[in-house]
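Q: Here's a chain of 270 amino acids. Please give me its 3D structure as tokens.
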Amino acid sequence: MTHTLVFLHGAFCGGWAFDAFRKPFETAGFTTLAPDLAGRAPEDDPERLGRVGAKELAAQVVDQIRDLPAPPVLIGHSLGGLIAQIAATKVPVAGLVLIAPSAPWGVMPTTIEEHGSAVGLTMLGDYWRRPIAPDYSVARHATLDRLEHAHAREVYAKFVPESGRVVMETIQWWLDPSMASAAPVYKIDAPVLALAGGRDRVNPASTVRRIAKRFPAGQCVYREFPEMSHWLIGEPEWEDVAHTAIAWLKAKDLAPEAGRRRAPEPQAHA
């Protein structure tokens, strides 16, 4: 059985964020998809993007994967990691790889930086009603902080506006009575790999560990890269992240037959 890998990008990004990261998976024989989440295409109405929420993004993913020949593996970075968890409560998946994932509804922040982000959003007024433009200084400080200056500028040039509504549902989830970002673990029947950067300011390792511990014992493996930050899919050691995920997929018998040589499974460090 062939399990397609579906890569889900983070906030302010598009499927392009995985252009390099997905190549080792394809070399290992996997079929990959990296769709743009709703509202990211040039022809999309930016005002509509401002009203797109987590439920709509998860529904888009469910629609895109429902007709695949076998349940896919969802690989999500940051916001994409949250959307992967929500989608996995709606449709069968073969596995989840959560890369510096945003936390679902009910998972409390663990750091001052996270609380600061939530407070800072209040300075934007009714931001949940409109798109939020990317900001280079914020991206450089928190997301692209380990990239060389020229490379950071090159990546940032591809950033796009993000839905204010989905940002609120993710970072200030306690203000959302609809619980749009909820992802009950009892509805997720798949193995999970959670990957974190030890220097991540956006979704810090302590919070990713808290996400991993939501799952029953043995369902989720946690792995931390101590010197990495938030952009695990493109920092200098990104290939280590990719190969860790590939090894886990092989250990879970989720690799294509041609590349299914048994690899040691990453050990849990939660």
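Q: Can you summarize the key feature?
A: The chain has ten helices and eight strands.
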